[in-house]
């Protein structure tokens, strides 16, 4: 069975990210035998999130414990996530004949995904964030990155697959024009709440204050630039809200991609909801989008 690992981390351009764990395929906790993860795009600085992934075959395991590790360069040692074995990540697998199902509440099995060597099963573990030392939370990372991008009135994104980008919210019509002109984007997939969508209004010149701003206007701004628009508001920093959003969002995203769109998916900072939706869509398109994990 093939298992897909993925993580978001704030690291410099010289960094390496890897996964190590309890089974031989993950090095049996030996960092010298860890599995290197690949970035979707090489990070520019540790002020911005970068997405890392790896796919490998694991045979005969009923339970796997693992951690992500990283180092700022090849000249320094590996930094382990979390604060000891209590923060180990765990996947429990139950063998049922030729099928393998995940006993844990996260992840999903794609049965019969066609690889280069024929039919095989794939366990796609949802994208997660690197567990930083105590006191450094997802909220603090996201807030730091969000404020940095906001203060610069800039936009940050990563190309995930050929027709999908994930990033920060567009803050002006110039950002929308850039997405369309430089990236070929034809559709926006917005996961912001109503409050966030209005606070980060994409045409502040026409509505410099909150008065008069509406979510309908946000859609109109996108459509005036020739972009299809989907809005699926999702509460920030909420695991439950993300879980409720992902199934239907994946169906809509699949429809956009199948229809030939190039999609830009965003929340506020492009760190929480957007990567989750992107990873879910990778799961859904695993059979046809083999290039994502090089089957």
TrEMBL record:
CDD domains: CBM20. It holds the Pfam family CBM_20. Residues 198-217 are annotated as: Disordered. Keywords: Hydrolase, Protein phosphatase. Residues 204-217 have a biased composition (Basic and acidic residues). The keyword Transmembrane does not apply. Residues 1-108 form the CBM20 domain. GO terms for molecular function: protein tyrosine phosphatase activity; starch binding. GO terms for cellular component: cytoplasm; nucleus. This is CBM20 domain-containing protein. It comes from Chromera velia CCMP2878.
């Amino acid at each position: 069975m093939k298992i897909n690992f993925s993580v978001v981390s704030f690291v410099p351009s010289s960094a390496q990210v890897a996964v190590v764990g309890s089974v031989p395929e993950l090095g049996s906790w030996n960092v010298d035998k860890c599995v290197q993860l690949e970035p979707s795009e090489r990070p520019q600085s540790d002020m911005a999130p970068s997405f890392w992934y790896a796919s490998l075959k694991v045979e005969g395991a009923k339970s796997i414990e693992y951690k992500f590790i990283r180092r700022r360069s090849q000249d320094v040692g590996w930094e382990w996530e979390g604060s000891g074995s209590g923060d180990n990540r765990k996947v429990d697998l139950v063998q049922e004949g030729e099928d393998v199902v995940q006993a844990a509440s996260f992840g999903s099995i794609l049965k019969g995904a066609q690889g280069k060597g024929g039919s095989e099963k794939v366990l796609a573990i949802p994208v997660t964030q690197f567990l930083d030392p105590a006191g450094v939370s997802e909220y603090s990372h996201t807030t730091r990155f969000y404020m940095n991008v906001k203060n610069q009135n800039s936009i940050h994104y990563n190309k995930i697959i050929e027709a999908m980008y994930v990033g920060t919210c567009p803050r002006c019509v110039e950002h929308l024009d850039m997405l369309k002109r430089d990236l070929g984007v034809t559709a926006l997939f917005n996961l912001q709440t109503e409050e966030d969508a209005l606070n980060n209004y994409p045409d502040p010149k026409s509505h410099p204050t909150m008065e008069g701003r509406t979510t309908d206007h946000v859609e109109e701004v996108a459509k005036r630039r020739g972009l299809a628009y989907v809005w699926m508001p999702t509460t920030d920093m909420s695991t439950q809200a993300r879980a409720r959003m992902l199934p239907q969002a994946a169906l809509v995203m699949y429809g956009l991609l199948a229809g030939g769109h190039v999609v830009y998916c965003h929340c506020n900072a492009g760190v929480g909801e957007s990567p989750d939706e992107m990873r879910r869509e990778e799961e859904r398109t695993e059979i046809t989008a083999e290039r994502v994990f090089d089957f």
